[in-house]
Amino acid sequence: MLPNSANSALRRALPGALRSPSATWQQLQPQPLQRAPSLPGRLAPAATSRLGCLQQVRHGPKDGRPGRLQHQLFGADEAKGRFYYRFHKIIGRWNWRKYIERYVAPRALENRQRWIPTVFPVHHQMRQSYSWHWRLPKAIAAATTPDEVLEAWVKFRHKHPKKTFHYFKVLKRLIDVGGCDATDWRLRLITSRFFNIHRKTLNLPRLAKYYSQLRVMNGLDDLSRYLLKSLPRYSPQQLALVARAYGSAGLQDKQLFVQVANLITEELSVLTPTDLVHLAEAYASAEVCHYGLLGAISAQLQVRVQQAAQDEAPSWSCPTFEQLTLVSAAFARLKFQDFSYTEMCALQAEMMLAQGLSGPTPPALARLCTSCAKLKIHEIRLYEAVVAHVSQHWYDYPAASLAEIGVAVSPTLPRSEQLNEAYRVMFDAIAADCENLTLKGVSDAAKFMAELDHKETFYPDIHKSLASRIIALRDETKEQYDVARVIEIFARRFPENIMLFSTLSRHIHRHLAHFEPMDFARATRGLAKAKYRDDRVVHALAKWAGKRASEFSSYDWANFTEAARVLRGKNTQLLDERFEAVAPPMPSDPRLGPSEYRLVESEKPTTTAASA
Fold first, then answer.
1. What is the rounded distance in angstroms from the CA atom of residue 23 to the CA atom of residue 441?
2. Could you write out the DSSP letters of every residue in 66-87?
3. Rounded to 10 degrees, what is the CA torsion of 23, 26, 27, 29?
4. Based on CB atoms within 10 Å of each CB, which residue in 31, 167, 479, 518 is the most buried?
């Protein structure tokens, strides 16, 4: 029961018909309000006051959370379907008292459409997404410089997955336009991604060739473990390509080369002459002396030449004279003395020169003569035929070929007036074309000159032309030549030429890693005779000789150390200590053979400039 004061207040608030004490319970129930006419968007004041007085109305969902507008705290309302309206969300947090509307409504059509996220693009979007499949190959094909090729790849570097042919295309185009620096980060970006798919690449021989031409050594090293398993499945041409790739790169993977030799020896008959040349050159470049394979190559070429002479061989199988000399040069590098093969090449050269055929070119003849000289196979008839042809057709021979031929034949052929006249013709051509000689050509010409100048000067003033050419090539930093022998030759003729020996001292540093013990002694002896002094050369010679002291005989070591002391001058104490620390052992018995000759302590030469 309500108190009387509360009853009176309630009665005053109720309509007149409900104030009666005898009103029933149905009469006390709330009655529908009569809405009075009002302005649009407004409620009648009386109805509003009655609504506020009768009950508190809270609009909201029927989930027990009526009116809770903070959906970020209480969760979103239950959706009727999968989609929802983009702009029908609650914006902001609790208090809207000072709210300023900054929302710009979009167009009516967009505002009325529902937002449907999908993973299926329209046609033009899908075409744009897949356009790199043809834009990347087009950019690679249109590139004409290494930078353009690399930038085309970098532009699409984020597009994945790339197929194997994409990597092959970019590597092939990079080789076609001239290659690039092996340390370029863009090339490393390409190859580092390619390493992950080496195991599923089918044409590994072609990839090895590309890596070899681009000098990607870590790629070749990683590729060998997959190649070793796949070699039995490759054709003979692919095996030759694998050997060529590793040979041109200078990687001496003996297990790989031996397995290639075992697989290809019985299949040489299906290879072209070019493949046989590349195979021999590959083993020569890698310095892998597989004499079984070399003998099989030699026999195969001899059989093909015999078949061609009898008109029984296919046109593609007969090697040219140039290819025969290339194989002979490879044999010479590996010290493989094949007298039958060398005799065949010599007979072919003599016959072609006698008949005036177009096979033997000057570089090919020079290469064949050099191979015979290196292998100590003295083909006198070949030498005489070549010198006779040179004396008659000297205008067809470049200076470098003449110098190479002269170095090879002059130590072997007996001197005669007719031969001396041919040598003078050769020196005339060398002197006239001296400006076109490389450092290798200058070295051959200097050794040819020194071979003929035993007792007197054979051809005066040629040494001045050669010295001027060496000075002109002072800034050449890559070509390798016999710098030790050149120093020894010019030390007898130009000991006072400071510019010449400064140039030679500059060139000697890049050759020290390839010096033989005889080269150390020659270079040091020649520099000791010259007036020019360079302490950097002395320290470099001493350092490299100390690293390779185990390769020296006692005789070579004594010659080198005596010349080094003369070259060093007065400050020889530190040099002597270094030499004594790394000197090879000295046997006590001086009666040893020429190949094992050692100097005894009492027989060491004295420290004089004349003896040096």
1. 135
2. TT---HHHH-PPPPSSS---TT
3. 130
4. 167
Q: Which of 412, 419, 348 is nearest to 390 (CA)?
A: 419
SS (H, E, C) 410-448: CCCCCCCHHHHHHHHHHHHHHHHCHHHCCHHHHHHHHHH
CB distance 321 to 335 below 8 Å:
no
Distant-in-sequence, close-in-space partners of 53: CB < 8 Å, separation ≥ 6: 13
Distances in whole angstroms, Cα of residue 438 to Cα of each of 21, 222, 387, 468, 481: 134, 37, 23, 12, 9
C-alpha–C-alpha distance, residues 332 and 322, integer Å: 15
Q: Which of 294, 194, 285, 276 minimizes the C-alpha distance to 237?
A: 276
Structure tokens at 64: 């027990």
Q: Is the pLDDT of residue 41 over 50?
A: no
pLDDT, one tens digit per residue, over 167-186 is 999 999 999 999 999 999 99
What is d(CA 204, CA 210) in angstroms, rounded to the nearest whole number? Answer: 10
**Angle at which helices 291-309 and 321-333 pack, to 10 degrees?**
160
Furthest-apart CA atoms within the chain: distance in Å: 164
Sequence-distant (≥ 6) Cβ neighbours of residue 365 within 8 angstroms: 325, 349, 386, 389, 401, 405
CA distances to 375, 489, 502 from 609, rounded to whole Å, are 36, 17, 20
pLDDT in tens, 438-497: 999 999 999 999 998 876 778 888 889 999 999 999 999 889 999 999 999 999 888 899
For the record, the structure tokens of 598 come out as 């050692």
> What's at 541, amino acid-wise?
L
Question: pLDDT tier at 345 (50, 70, 90 boundaries)?
Answer: very high
Instruction: Write down the pLDDT at residue 581.
Output: 59
pLDDT of residue 284: 96
Question: If 0-12 CB within 10 Å is exposed, 13-18 middle and 19+ buried, where does residue 243 land?
Answer: buried
Sign of CA dihedral 166, 169, 174, 177: negative
| Residue 542 · residue 561 · CB < 8 Å | no
